[in-house]
Design a protein that fits this description.
Blueprint: E1 3-6, H1 12-25, H2 33-42, H3 45-53, E2 57-62, E3 68-75, E4 79-85, H4 94-109, E5 113-118, H5 123-128, E6 132-143, E7 146-158
Parallel strand pairs: 4-5
Antiparallel strand pairs: 1-2, 2-3, 3-4, 5-7, 6-7
Helix pairs in contact: 1-2
């Protein structure tokens, strides 16, 4: 049984491990090893903890032992910054559940739309949750060998 609950500061290390596992394992289904390495190197637990400190809503899917297995970050203004699921817990509907809870939180904040930059693998989850594809975003990530080209998708959902 997986429950959705608010983030707690003691979740930070587990969410960092979860994020890197998702990037280094799951992302290889759609991105090259060089892209995955650059992406993983770009990850920082401080980004998560500073977001929490500034008021981001972080919702955690936790297993029966209260261990985080997935999470979503909703920034003020309706931006979904992160949606990650541990590789051992994919394809169980956790992404959709987290997006539904984030939508409830966004509505409570008065947001009129949600928007994100979805990875190749997250794009279908967002589409199933009612997000509309706006455009593909091609960009580079700094890497030890220079810049690595990668892409994601700008998506949004209007809240009525």
């Amino acid at each position: 049984m997986v429950a959705i609950r608010p983030y707690r500061p003691d979740d930070a290390a587990a969410l960092s491990v979860l994020t890197l596992a998702a990037i280094r394992t799951t992302a290889l289904q759609a991105y090259s090893p060089a892209q995955v390495t650059a992406w993983a190197d770009h990850h920082s637990v401080e980004r998560l903890t500073s977001g929490s400190a500034k008021g981001d809503v972080i919702l955690v899917a936790a297993d029966a032992g209260d261990r985080p297995v997935a999470y979503v970050v909703l920034e003020v203004g309706g931006h979904l910054d992160m949606l990650y699921c541990h590789p051992d817990h994919t394809r169980q509907g956790l992404g959709l559940r987290l997006l539904a809870e984030a939508e409830t939180a966004a509505r409570a904040q008065g947001a009129t739309r949600l928007f994100t930059e979805a990875s190749e693998l997250a794009r279908p989850v967002f589409a199933r949750a009612g997000y509309v594809l706006r455009n593909r975003r091609d960009f580079t990530i700094p890497s030890s060998g220079g810049e690595v080209a990668i892409h994601n998708y700008a998506m949004e959902k209007r809240l009525g």
